[in-house]
Design a protein that fits this description.
By secondary structure, the protein is α/β, with parallel strands linked by helices. Helix content is 35%, strand content 13%. Bound molecules: 4-O-methyl-beta-D-glucopyranuronic acid.
Length: 657
């Protein structure tokens, strides 16, 4: 049994580079990382790290090259040498890994010089890690891969070798920021900002040589809980002073500190509302403390009322972020990034794109994804999410001729740049992510954040090629993973309606689990129909938060896309979809089909027994059995529920319990 799985950087991934003569030119901590990578690769594969003389690969960091983006690189061939040039170590690191991913073709292709630069300036991972074990959420909130790789015994771990490997993995896919603790900031975690700061310094040192800046989640109430002040009112001068001093201390210890992440007035976290202030007042107070040092505050838009009454049909959680934040457009400081979840609810398998993204042209926006699979199988199910993220990033809120979501995040839509952020899925599990195939989601997030135009299949292809030494697994893995997000969608909540999960842990089916709970009501199924009426005409008015054309497309059942029908409309069970099927029959068909697809996935995997490492084979085999069990449970619970509610039998007469 290996200690820690190498993920997408096993020795075999470096064969092409490592078997050649390689020269590295330049100085600085990140160039040193590149040199170390080369040293290891050539030792493994028989090549050489050369100081001068002919080389097959030259990695050149030349600060005066005229390139303005430190993260960019140019790769091409000069004579028989493949040359990567960058003006900064971090660009060189990205160029090096580009060559690694290309493999032999980096040395045999047309050789024309091409410039590569990230499409998003900020590519960030948020950890929902607690320092201490939380009594309900465990050490990593919504973490499905064991405990935290950062913390043990009440502080940052003594042995950071695991973090070092993680930083290396993230650097190889271009992630450039990491937030080190949960957005729900508990007592001990708040102290990372003050007396536990020396520990944070150690983590920052591990990430720095990989081009990664660290952030901390902070509690809005910290001036009271840590500072002993009577208030955390963001407009109180003593509060502002407190933030300024504490922030200056952080920068004295970590000069390249990235800044703060804040969840305020959300799910019980403190915030500016307690003082009659708005979220711009709150965010700007922290932003002003960070500004002198070039820091950024990521302020989350995930603010909603979690004390609802199911009888009240006017309160709609989906509306909340737009209702709270759109009116504040233009009032945030330049170093505030508003961090918006990709959908209006909460990382469901299918949601429309958040309307906030098109509503704040004078605000820096970052789109937040969830790599950790809270609602998508919790790293027990194969659910390759890159196609979902790709769809969101490619969505055009203003219609076919308008900008994409990725354009907004990147600052290409006339709005200032924010970036993309995702909740990490790693833990201290030997495979990093619990499910070995969930590593592909982490990899894919980084790659898509770098270039939102990459095809999901191409990203998966890179991951397979790097991760598995035996290339004959490629087709089988595509067959198993390419469509797995849609498979998951088929056997869980139908047509965009969402939730239907067990409250609390969010794993497995419970059709009415949330229906009468204060956290929101999501399907309103009765004997006549199902779905949430979010129209302007008769519902919550949520469709009005979108610009043309989507406000009209979503408003009408005629033009609303099938996959979101029940998100936007309450319809009778015999309503006919664009697919030609009725809603009720669609529910039955997709649930039978989705479950059977999982059975086929398990068969496909069984055929790989001799071609993947035994430990990976064993773990995935076990988890596919659980996925099949759970998909069967989903199928039966959902079908039975709707069979009973609607009174409509399956037209194919299959067994519905
Ligand atoms: O998805 C929900 C989770 C909470 C999480 C919250 C958030 C960290 O159920 O566990 O809290 O979102 O994004 O803040």
């Amino acid at each position: 049994m290996i200690d820690v799985h190498p993920a997408w950087l096993p020795a075999s991934a470096f064969r092409s580079v490592g078997s050649r003569r390689v020269r590295v030119t330049g100085d600085g901590p990140v160039v040193a990382t590149v040199r170390d990578e080369v040293r290891t690769a050539v030792a493994d594969h028989g090549g050489a790290l050369v100081e001068d003389g002919p080389a097959d690969l030259a990695l050149v960091c030349a600060p005066d090259d005229g390139e303005t983006d430190p993260e960019a690189f140019v790769v091409g061939r000069e004579g028989t040498t493949t040359v990567v040039r960058a003006v900064d170590g971090v660009g060189l690191l990205y160029g090096f890994h580009h060559v690694v991913r290309q493999g032999e073709s980096a040395f045999t292709g047309d050789g024309e010089a091409r410039r590569h630069a990230p499409r998003q300036p900020i590519r960030m991972l948020d950890h929902w890690d607690n320092v201490d074990e939380h009594p309900v959420m465990g050490q990593v909130e919504r973490g499905y891969a064991g405990g935290s790789i950062f913390y043990a015994d009440g502080g940052v771990r003594e042995d950071l070798s695991r973090v070092r490997s993680y930083a290396r993995l993230l650097g190889s896919i271009g992630v450039n920021r990491v937030c080190l603790n949960n957005v729900n900031v508990h007592r001990t975690e708040a102290r990372l900002l003050t007396d536990l700061l020396p520990d944070v310094v150690r983590l920052a040192e591990v990430f720095r040589p990989h081009g990664i800046r660290v952030h901390l989640s902070v509690s809005f109430a910290a001036p009271i809980t840590l500072g002993g002040l009577p208030t955390a009112d963001p407009l109180d001068p003593a509060v502002r002073d407190w933030w300024a001093h504490v922030t200056a201390d952080v920068y004295a210890a970590i000069p390249d500190f990235g800044g703060y992440v804040v969840k305020a007035d959300s799910e019980g976290q403190p915030g500016p509302f307690a003082y009659g202030r708005d979220h711009a007042d709150g965010a700007n107070t922290l932003a002003r403390a960070l500004a002198p040092f070039g820091g950024t505050v990521f302020w989350r838009a995930f603010v909603y009322n979690h004390r609802q009454d199911w009888r009240d049909r006017s309160t709609d959680r989906a509306r909340a972020a737009h209702d709270h934040f759109a009116p504040l457009d233009g009032s945030f400081d330049a170093n505030v990034v508003l961090q918006v979840k990709n959908g209006p609810l909460d990382f469901q398998v299918r949601e429309p794109v958040s309307p906030v993204i098109a509503a704040m042209p004078r605000t820096r926006l970052a789109v937040e994804f969830q790599v950790t699979q809270e609602y998508t199988g919790q790293q027990k199910h194969v659910c390759h999410l890159v196609p979902q993220w790709r769809e969101v990033l490619a969505f055009r809120p203003w219609g076919e001729d308008g900008h994409t979501v990725a354009d907004v995040a990147a600052g290409r839509a006339g709005t200032p740049a924010g970036g993309v952020v995702a909740v990490s899925n790693v833990g201290d599990d030997p495979f990093w992510t619990g499910h070995p195939l969930a590593q592909a989601n982490l990899f894919g997030f980084g790659r898509l954040a770098w270039d939102d135009r990459l095809a999901p299949e191409a990203v998966l292809d890179e991951w397979i090629g790097l991760t598995f030494a035996d290339d004959s697994v490629r087709d089988a893995l595509h067959g198993l993973m390419d469509g797995s997000w849609r498979t998951y969608e088929r056997y869980t909540a139908p047509l965009g309606v969402g939730f239907m999960v067990r409250p609390g842990d969010h794993y497995g089916p419970d059709v009415d689990g949330y229906e009468y709970s204060p956290w929101g009501t999501y399907h309103f199924a009765d004997r006549d129909g199902v779905g949430v009426d979010r129209t302007r005409a008769t519902g919550t008015g949520y469709t009005g938060q979108y610009p043309v054309p989507w406000r009209d497309r979503y408003e009408s059942v005629e033009t609303c896309p099938d996959e979101l029908l029940l998100f936007f409309h309450h319809v009778p069970y015999d309503h006919v979809l664009h697919s030609g099927e009725t809603v009720i029959q669609h529910i039955y068909d997709t649930h039978f089909a989705g479950r059977d697809e999982v059975a086929r996935m398990a068969d496909t995997w069984a055929g790989l027994a001799d071609r993947v490492p035994a430990d990976v084979f064993g773990r995935v085999t076990e988890l596919l059995a659980e996925q099949l069990r759970c998909a069967t449970e989903w199928r039966d619970q959902v079908n039975t529920y709707f069979r009973r509610k609607s009174g409509v039998p399956d037209k194919h007469g299959r067994t519905i319990y």
